[in-house]
Amino acid sequence: MQTSKRFLLDDFVAGWIGGASSVVVGHPLDTVKTRLQAGKGYKSTLHCVLTIYRKETVMGFFKGMSFPLASITVYNSVVFGFFSNTQRLISKYRYGDGRHPCGMLDLTVASMLTGLMSVGLGAPVDLVKIRLQMQTQTVLAENLHLAGNVSNGTNIPLRSVSIPSQRLYRGPLHCISSILQTEGLQGLYRGAGAMILRDVPGYTLYFIPYTIFCNLLKPDATSSPHPCSIWLAGGLAGSISWVTATPADVVKSRMQADAQLQRKYKGILHCIIHSYKTEGAQVFFRGASVNAIRGFPMSATMFLTYELSLQFFRSL
Question: Angle at Cα 171 formed by Cα 168 and Cα 175, nearest 5°?
């Protein structure tokens, strides 16, 4: 990351631009990842992709993108701005100069603090995105057990009950409003604990590898990395971060998609135990291949756009 003499807003603006570009690139695979982790009936990644395309056309892959596009741009702006300026504050505190290059320990502290901070803003964003992405899922049988009974106790075969194709949420704002009405403010932060378990180590394994790869790909210590090096370093860092974060991401996605009146999961530990007992240890790596593939272009685009935007702003 480039440094500056003063606390700058450049990092926030560059992060905003990078966030917007990464959402457009990564949202289709993010939809596939969410359906694999929290949905039912998908045999493989390819089967999931083909099912979405056949039932919902290409637009199905971009379901719920308007909210991330508007919000994740702000989220990434805050993340990159916070991370860069935290590095400056650490350098100023430890070395007396905010321009002093950070060591690995400094970068680790800055990354972990960034991951912790990101949950406050990112948890509601992720929750709304996942609820919108999951709208076309087949309604689970446990949600319909009352549909087979009438007041006189006569059972109606479930197959005879006509279920209208009706969406629970009309859009992001309606989703937020519905969650606040039915679950309260804490409902927007469902899965936040799992998100902390994902993002604190996740951001550490995001920024650290990026810095290492950039330094390795530079021709010498004093030169700036080439755009191709930034793109490659960012992509590799994104894949590493997302693959290692997959188990916690599975738990987070399941808890956030759990919008039943009678919840399936009581908490993080219950979600982990229940998922393990019913689907085995492999469930925690569901979507790992999608995360690895998706993480590369998203992060490569993010870092490249961020760094080029930063260079442009500081050349003015």
Answer: 60
What CA–CA distance (Å, rounded) separates 259 from 147? Answer: 18
For residues 225 and 215, give the distance between their C-alpha atoms in angstroms, rounded to a whole number. Answer: 8
**Angstrom distance (rounded) from CA 290 to CA 32:** 8
Query: Closest by alpha carbon to 251, among 197, 173, 308, 176?
Result: 197
155: exposed, middle or buried (Cβ count in 10 Å: 0-12, 13-18, 19+)? exposed
pLDDT band at 277 (very low <50, low <70, confident <90, very high): very high
Report pLDDT digits (tens) over 72-116: 788 889 999 999 999 999 998 888 887 788 889 999 999 999 999
pTM, two decimals, is 0.74
Q: Strands, E, within the chain: which ranges? A: none
Q: What is the pLDDT of residue 4?
A: 44
Evaluate whether 296 touches 238 at the Cβ level (below 8 Å): yes
Q: How far apart are CA 122 and CA 145, in angstroms?
A: 34
DSSP lists the bridge partners of residue 149 as 155
CA separation for the pair 47, 92 (Å, rounded): 52
